[in-house]
C-alpha cells in the first residue's frame, strides 16, 4: 500500500508501475535510495535490538563506553566490567584480560578509557547522547549499516542531488534518471508496456534516457546553447550507466552550472512529454526559458519564505570579554589529536581587568569522543579552580552540547552524564556563585591554543607566567 501511494495509479504514462520495491526505496539517500522508512529495519529496531546490538552498537564501536567489552564478552566468562578492573585503582586488570581474550580484543578493552566519575556498571546505548536506547537511533543504525549490505543501493555521491538548491520536483526527476526509472519508451518496453520505440522528439533513434536527455539532436543543441555540452560529453564518455554519467556530470560542474543543468534536464523531459501526450512541438528557446523561469521563481519564493520565517539571529559575541567586577573568568577547551592519540586540555584564568592569573595544560589518552573530551576539560577546570580556592568564576567553553547537558534536568545514562554529574556536585557545593557558559569558538582562542599545545607536551603543566603560545592573545584581550 505504501508503495502504491508513492508511485501512484493515476495517469497513463507509466505511473502505475511500481518501479522499485519499498525496501529498495528505503535505502538511505547516500546510496541512491529515497531514505524512506524501512519496515524491516523499523521492526528490528522496535522488537529485536539484539540483531542491531550484535553489530557492536553497545560499546564496541565507540571506545569511550564503559561497556566496550560487552560486544566481546560471553555470558558466564565474567559478570561485570568491574571484574576486569583492578580492585585498588581505576585501571584495567591487564593480566586477567590477557588470559581471557585474544590480542585484538585485549587491545580494544585496554584502549577503552576509564573515568573516575563512572562508578557503576550499566549498559549504555552509544548511539544516543543520554545513553538510553531509542528506536530512532537503532533504526538509523540498521538502515545505514546492516541494511545496506544487500544490493538495493548504488554507491555514488547522491548527496549532490539532495543538497542542491533546486526545486524538489527537479531533485526527484534527477533521482529517477539516476535510478533508471524514467518512463522512457525503452524502459516501458523493457517492462512489457506496449508502446512505440522511437524517440518522440526526433523520431529517429530508440528513446532511452541517455538519448532523450543528451544525445537527441534537439537536446544536444540545448546543452550547447547552455555552454554545458563539454562536461556532458565527458560524462557520456566515462560510462554507459546513466547513474555514473549523471553523478559524473554533476561533480564536474560548479554550483550555478549544476542548477542550470538540473532544471534543463527537467525542461527537456517536459518537452518530450508535451510531444508524447499533447503532440506539441517545443523549440529550444521554449525549453531554455521554462528552465530559467522555474529556477528564478523558485529561488525568489525561497528567499521570501526564509526572510519571513527566520527571526534575525541574536548576534553571539565573537570576542572575549572581561568578567564583571570582582569575578574571574576561566576559559576551557579540548583539542583532539589522532596523530598522538590524545586529547589535549587547556584552561586559562583571568581577572576582571583581563589580567592573567594562571593557566594549565594536561592531556588524556587514548583519544575520546569530542563531548566526553570537552566534559573532561570542564571537570578538570572545575576541580582546579576549587583547589585554588577561587570563587565567583565564569567558566566558558565552546562546546554547546556539553554546556546544555550540564544545565539539563534530564538524566544521562552515559559517561558524559556521569562526568557532568561530578562537575555539578563541585559547582553546587564549593562554587555556588560560579557559572558555566557557552561562547563562540572565536572568543575562546586562549584555551584553544593551550589545548592544542597540550597534545604535544610530555607532561602536565601549570603556568604561573604567561605561556608564549598565548602571550599575544592575553595582551590583545586585556585592552
Ligand atoms: Zn531523439
UniProtKB/TrEMBL annotation:
<protein>
    <recommendedName>
        <fullName>RNase H type-1 domain-containing protein</fullName>
    </recommendedName>
</protein>
<dbReference type="InterPro" id="IPR044730">
    <property type="entry name" value="RNase_H-like_dom_plant"/>
</dbReference>
<feature type="domain" description="RNase H type-1">
    <location>
        <begin position="331"/>
        <end position="454"/>
    </location>
</feature>
<dbReference type="Pfam" id="PF13456">
    <property type="entry name" value="RVT_3"/>
</dbReference>
<dbReference type="InterPro" id="IPR036397">
    <property type="entry name" value="RNaseH_sf"/>
</dbReference>
<dbReference type="InterPro" id="IPR052929">
    <property type="entry name" value="RNase_H-like_EbsB-rel"/>
</dbReference>
<dbReference type="GO" id="GO:0003676">
    <property type="term" value="F:nucleic acid binding"/>
</dbReference>
<dbReference type="InterPro" id="IPR012337">
    <property type="entry name" value="RNaseH-like_sf"/>
</dbReference>
<dbReference type="InterPro" id="IPR026960">
    <property type="entry name" value="RVT-Znf"/>
</dbReference>
<dbReference type="InterPro" id="IPR002156">
    <property type="entry name" value="RNaseH_domain"/>
</dbReference>
<feature type="domain" description="Reverse transcriptase zinc-binding">
    <location>
        <begin position="133"/>
        <end position="223"/>
    </location>
</feature>
<dbReference type="Pfam" id="PF13966">
    <property type="entry name" value="zf-RVT"/>
</dbReference>
<dbReference type="GO" id="GO:0004523">
    <property type="term" value="F:RNA-DNA hybrid ribonuclease activity"/>
</dbReference>
